[in-house]
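Hypothesis: this fold can be encoded by more than one sequence.
Test: take the structure tokens below, design a sequence, compare later.
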């Protein structure tokens, strides 16, 4: 089953649509997963305008920043990782989900690793 994200409709297709005034009034997720978000301020008005949804939904936080506030329900934070995408790849491998990684997903993961490591220049690149 594919569930369309109401926030981002296009990514990495020369266009990214991100609506910071999004209303989640008619959208009731079972789970919220945030990637590379170390603080609530990074979520802009989406969090403030939908506070009830965020407070009443299980929230998983996947991040690699040492500054992460760890205020989500489930925090998967590895400060030794080069990027959040590296952590996501380890999760995929640990759950033996590699067979679901197609060219598009691999491109997203590689793009995240390249951008977060400054093209593998940072010292924590591996």
């Amino acid at each position: 089953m594919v569930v369309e994200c109401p926030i981002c409709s296009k990514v990495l297709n020369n266009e990214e649509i991100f609506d910071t005034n999004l209303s989640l009034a008619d959208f009731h997720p079972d789970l919220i997963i945030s990637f590379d978000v170390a603080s609530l301020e990074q979520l802009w008005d989406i969090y403030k305008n939908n506070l009830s949804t965020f407070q009443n939904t299980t929230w998983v936080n996947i991040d690699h920043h040492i500054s992460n506030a760890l205020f989500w329900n489930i925090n998967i934070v590895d400060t030794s990782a080069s990027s959040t995408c590296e952590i996501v790849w380890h999760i995929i491998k640990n759950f033996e989900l590699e067979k679901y990684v197609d060219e598009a997903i691999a491109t997203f993961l590689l793009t995240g690793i390249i951008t977060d490591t400054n093209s593998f220049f940072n010292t924590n690149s591996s």
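The CA atoms of residues 90 and 117 lie 17 Å apart. The helical segments are 44-49, 51-55, 84-94, 103-116.
Hypothesis status: open.
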